[in-house]
Design goal:
7 helices
């Protein structure tokens, strides 16, 4: 009788080991961050973003009393340079957890884009600015910054300025 019990225990241990080896650990769910409203503006296909940039250029040129080509070649490069130069600084500030620095820089660049009527770039930057003022987790703000620049750079790549 003892041999039967010992055999059953050994068999159960072997079956348990087999089952444990076969079962794979469940993957951790991927962290997803919901984009705030104005950041969703740049979640469009790249061609739509380019089209909205072009529309903003036309609107800005009209409001500044400039020819579209003149606006594109004189004012727009300055805006794009400001946005480009802000990227590394914004990410650096996010790494440091410096809400105030992100707030100040994103506010400045956002203001330039909105003043030039390129809302498709200004409003998402405004949302990054708001997120710092709401003190959202820095992980979210960093994700917003990276997402904005990913879409911005893709849209900018195919445009001629």
């Amino acid at each position: 009788m003892m041999w039967v019990i010992l055999g059953a225990v050994i068999l159960l241990v072997i079956v348990a080991i087999f089952i444990l080896k076969k079962s794979k650990p469940k993957p951790k769910p991927k962290k997803t961050i919901t984009l705030p409203n104005d950041l969703k503006l740049i979640a469009k296909p790249v061609d739509e973003i380019r089209k909205e940039i072009e529309e903003g250029i036309k609107k800005g040129a009209a409001e500044f009393g400039m020819d579209v080509n003149e606006f594109k070649h004189e004012l727009l490069p300055e805006l794009l340079s400001q946005i480009d130069n802000a990227k590394d600084k914004l990410l650096e500030y996010a790494e440091k957890g410096d809400y105030e620095a992100i707030d100040k820089l994103s506010h400045s660049v956002k203001g330039a884009a909105l003043n030039m009527r390129v809302d498709i770039l200004g409003l998402p930057l405004q949302e990054i600015n708001r997120a710092t003022r709401r003190r959202e987790p820095m992980e979210h703000i960093k994700a917003y910054i990276k997402y904005f620049y990913k879409k911005y750079e893709a849209a900018k790549e195919g445009m001629k300025f």
